[in-house]
Structure of RNA polymerase sigma-70 factor (ECF subfamily):
Amino acid sequence: MTDARLLGDDESAFIAAARSNDAAQFAHLTERYRRELQVHCYRMLANYEDAQDMTQETFLRVWNKRESFKGHAALRTWLYRIATNACLDFLDKRNDRTPVPAALPGAGTEVLYLQPYPDRMLPEDPQESVVARETIELAFIVAVQNLPPRQRAVFILRDVLGWPASKAADALELTVASVTSALQRARVTMREQLPDRRLDWRTPATHELSDDERGVVKSYMDAHERNDLDGLTALLRDDLRFAMLPEPDTLVVMAKDAVDGWVAGGLFQRGYDDWRCIPTTVNLMPAAALYRRIPGDPEHRLYNIAVLHIVGGKIAELTGFDAAGKPWLSLPATL
């Protein structure tokens, strides 16, 4: 991300709006950044609703600090600085926004507050906003949560947004040496968390689902609608990583254990044997929205959303989320 396009007119207009207390012009100038700032807050917080709140907090702070903007930095840079510090302040006050050790030995941590990010809320120009698929996928968002908050901020500003060390240091009120050290430590953690993933975050990446991904999603939905346990099992890699959020202690790292848990929970038995599904995407990842009809109910009601990471035509990671009561997912409540 660069500031070059914004230098000049936007900064002058913002300063004029600040001096005249022109709230309408202020809103016009800042609102265009809402989506990219919200994505930034989501990377920091891993929770869509928290990201919405902190984006709104950012705009409140920007309005309150509007007279302090002198145009020495680009307007976008100033907004990101305020958003980053709003997220850090939020994390300083919350003790429930850190990963917890998984109950399964050797399985790492669980991010119980993780929520999916609706693709419709991503910035419309991905090249301009640097929303590469790798930096919004669930695995990346989870990995980032394992960084301490200020180290997390350094990593996102430097390696995702491409800020120079001096700009990141100024935004976080750190020394350049501290930023450099924090980035080195963060990169080590990210390599440990994502050993099989591409780690060049600023290289453009495709946003389109592959034919393999579309095919697996269709087969996943078909298996549910047919109550086909064997067909569902055949779609899973043996080393499947599964979790159902926000429930704790649901993480498993073997397909057999996942399937056994689903069966024990009643999958394809009475009350869990009448499904309809629709394909969707969140976090630029393939997903299926599952609708369940219980006996006596004339409608299928939104139950959960299954987000899939597909490798070689098989589901390598399956993250389920309770989807009911989340209108921001823009899924119909019933089918």
About this structure: The longest strand covers residues 301-311. The chain has two domains: 4-193, 211-329.
